[in-house]
């Protein structure tokens, strides 16, 4: 079998030569060019499987060259090299169809690995067969998440860019992180997760980086940290906004160096990790308030994706309900009236809340069909209605008044107070102020 052909376009002589040497040693046929114009000329004569190019070149830049080569050969795979400070242009390259990017200074290990993954299955028989798409079965990918579909595929393809997922609680940030991992070239390697808000501060460091025996009281044996356990794969940092500042500094250092050292250990270890972080906090506000480091923020969010709350993707509710009912294996279905109620609900707890409601209904309903009367009281009573989202337009006071007037006939004072998130005493005081005492 003919070995794959690679073209390197790099204006820095020593770098170009070293990249060429590393890849030749791997058995590839490698040509090189010092400018985009020269690279284009070579591409007219030879079809390369893979092109590795710097973005910043004298004359025509790497992205322009990418577009021109693409026009001649739609199958060529591009890897872009870029300095950390110019990551924006790497994102531009990914959007223009580059397979992935490598940060300068290019690490030989990372280069070998990425080239191998990029060429896997393409060597010598570049086919038109579509690659399997890890998102095909995901609920909402053709519905309320369809605006994210293209971006998701791009993010999965670029297996090394760190990603930040934003969304309210229960919108599926953890679910999406897993899906992205599973659809990426890292799929055969581990996916590890940690909730930065749930692990006590003094344990986070050893959870993430591990420790050696005797590092602190209670460290009775060596412990492997998540970074090492996830090597080659994906690390999911949930609630990153809750990470203590001291830990943020340490995390930043690991992300910069690609090396972790266990607590009490003397030697570092290289790791290759994609970090997917998630938060329901406004990190820019946290940065302004001094509780989140800006430099870490830049490291973790090469890409940002916002997952819409369930109330903004009501079209997905029937499919989600069907999914959770099928999983319950009771054969029960949801009546049209009950489904209508579910679609009118505001779902402050998003998909997780929906899942709980459906599972509970499947358990308690008597008949084959889940009726409106099987739904939780709060939901039937129209608490947290979908139009609660309009409250943003009202002042809190006006909203509170509206809720009291709308619901006081069928709710007790305790239920009303709970719905408004205030105490009964506060509710009474507001009633008195507005002359609404019962
Ligand atoms: N597209 C989807 N299809 C099916 N189930 C989903 C989908 N998205 C999320 N879920 C389910 O919804 C539940 C909540 O998702 P997940 O735990 O990922 O939310 P989250 O945003 O990470 O929440 P939190 O911020 O509270 O940790 C999970 O049980 C998950 O399996």
TrEMBL record:
In-chain residues carrying the UniProt-annotated modification 4-aspartylphosphate = 54
| SUPFAM superfamilies attached to this UniProt entry | CheY-like, P-loop containing nucleoside triphosphate hydrolases
Q: Which Pfam families match?
A: AAA_lid_14, Response_reg, Sigma54_activat
The biological processes this protein is annotated with in GO are: phosphorelay signal transduction system; regulation of DNA-templated transcription
Query: What keywords sit in the KW lines?
Result: ATP-binding, DNA-binding, Nucleotide-binding, Phosphoprotein, Transcription, Transcription regulation
Domain of life from the UniProt record: Bacteria
Q: Where is the Response regulatory domain?
A: 5-119
Checking SMART domains in the record gives: AAA (SM00382), REC (SM00448)
Q: Start and end of every Sigma-54 factor interaction domain? A: 138-363
Q: Which InterPro entries match?
A: AAA+_ATPase, AAA_lid_NorR, CheY-like_superfamily, P-loop_NTPase, Sig_transdc_resp-reg_receiver, Sigma_54_int, Sigma_54_int_dom_ATP-bd_1, Sigma_54_int_dom_ATP-bd_2
Among the GO molecular function terms of this UniProt record, one is: ATP binding
Q: Kindly provide the name given to this protein in its UniProt entry.
A: Sigma-54-dependent Fis family transcriptional regulator
* Taxonomic source organism: Sulfidibacter corallicola
